[in-house]
Amino acid sequence: MSATFAKAGSWDTLEPKLSPFILETLATLGFSEMTPVQASAIPLFMKNKDVVIEAVTGSGKTLSFVIPIIEKLTRKKRLAKNEIGAIVITPTRELAQQISSVFSIFLKDPSLPKHALIIGGTTTLHDDIAEFKELGPDILIGTPGRLRDLLIGKGSEKSVVNTKELEILVLDEADRLLDMGFSQTLDNIITHLPKQRRTGLFSATMTDSISEIVRVGLRNPVKVVVKVEDIISKDEQRTPLTLDIGCIVCEPHQKLAQLIRIINREKTTKKCIVYYATCACVDYFYKILTKLSQLKGISIHSLHGKMDTKRRTATYQSFINLPTTSKALLLCTDVAARGLDMPDVDFIIQMDPPQDPKVFSHRCGRTARAGKKGKAILLLVKGREEVYVDFLKIRKIPVRLLSYILSDNSNTIVTQDTIDEENDSLLKQVQDIVLADRDLHDKVVCDKHLN
Ligand SMILES: Nc1ncnc2c1ncn2[C@@H]1O[C@H](COP(=O)(O)OP(=O)(O)OP(=O)(O)O)[C@@H](O)[C@H]1O
Q: Which CATH class is domain 11-229?
């Protein structure tokens, strides 16, 4: 995959200058230049401005706050063991884990600030407090509920965290945090923190819903919108230029056949993410797809919010750590739509349009990251296609309506008859799988894709 990342100057042009250990780490990562969002956000943060940053998926927002946090805390006097200097809040555990691993790359030397992951799930609040006391982290990265409990205390568990030296608060995927109903929890956290701090909100899709958090949590923020412009049409767009988005229109009962066709015909595809609307759909289709002869040899994984945390982490880790040579599918809900930076994902399939239109660009944005190429396909039910495509275009998301000749590397024209034949044989297999599995048989879910 070729990378055509927009570059915005070398790191050593930043003022104030970055510490040598940060520059060395960036060089080790092979990041010779900043991305536009990094070139805009880092100096603002370093000059003590509050920021609201909106930039397309995969444009490098994470380092736009990770670097200023590390830089600021390294320059500061050493914090006491119970004091913290920065907090990063994310809507999901996976995203918090990912951000924590980015901090780990920079903070290897024991003399540097320490960071801790506060996400609950596998640990109790009591465990987190004990770990905090032992490690004395300077940076906390976590999800809202457990972070609030650790910072403020809950029931008989009293907080041991001193926030008076806090320098930076970051809300990553800020609009999602609010959409998920964390507004009260965030208010509790914000009012508990010192006013003399810098706050940054980051997302690829800012909405009006963030205005309340801006009002209570930020002071004269600088808003930065990093735009992407198509070089040929000069049109502004809200998705990466390297992302090719298509849409296939079919009957509900043809969706499964379409999915198999896309997966099998896209010979170059390595890792593909398939989005479903509900956790039940993911479970159901995981059972079906893992047994279909057409997908033999493809490593299939599933991820959704109703899985227990251990399984969720294990699935996620095994998907991202797969060797680049394997072809793999991740079936998931929107729990994996935002922020996750999964290497080598080059194809996204959306079995249904998301309920929240903003999610569309986040789902697609799991591919075509950092200037690499990627494809995304949405399956739409006949009759709604034009409205939906117009709707995306209004939101500056360029979509092509694809015909059945879809991505056919062998250049064979796929006709309606071929589709019907493939579909019949598939449905027969699905019926057999369902009949042989009592569990599946009892669950008449997701049948809109099958009947
Ligand atoms: N300056 C750089 N040069 C090259 N690659 C970079 C640079 N900065 C970040 N990257 C890489 O780009 C990818 C996307 O970065 P990141 O995850 O921060 O995107 P994002 O803007 O937060 O996306 P999303 O909106 O989906 O959360 C990562 O793999 C990251 O390592």
A: alpha beta
> Is the Cβ–Cβ distance between 124 and 132 less than 8 Å?
no
**DSSP3 helix / strand / coil % (the chain, rounded to 5):** 40, 20, 40
Per-residue pLDDT, averaged over 351-374, amounts to: 91
**Contact in structure between 202 and 234 (CB atoms under 8 Å):** no
Q: Counting atoms of ligand 1 from 1, which one is nearest the CA of 365?
A: 26
Å from CA of 251 to ligand 1 middle = 37
Partners of 243 in beta bridges: 374
Ligand 1 center to 2 CA (angstroms)? 15
User: For 128-148, how does the pLDDT look when each residue is reduced to its tens digit (9 = 90+)?
Assistant: 999 999 999 999 999 999 999
User: Ligand 1 centroid to 370 CA: how many Å?
Assistant: 6
CB atoms within 10 A of CB 360: 26
Q: In angstroms, what is the span from residue 345 Cα to ligand 1's centroid?
A: 14
Residue with tokens 């024991």: 110
The CATH class, in words, for 257-450 is alpha beta
Chain Cα centroid distance, residue 133:
31
Residues in contact with ligand 1 (CB, 6 Å cut-off): 5, 31, 33-35, 38, 55, 57-63, 204, 339, 341, 365, 369-370
Name the residue ranges covered by the structural domains of the chain. 11-229, 257-450
Specify the ligand 1 atom closest to the Cα of 55. 21
ipTM over 0.95: yes
pLDDT given for residue 124 in this prediction = 95
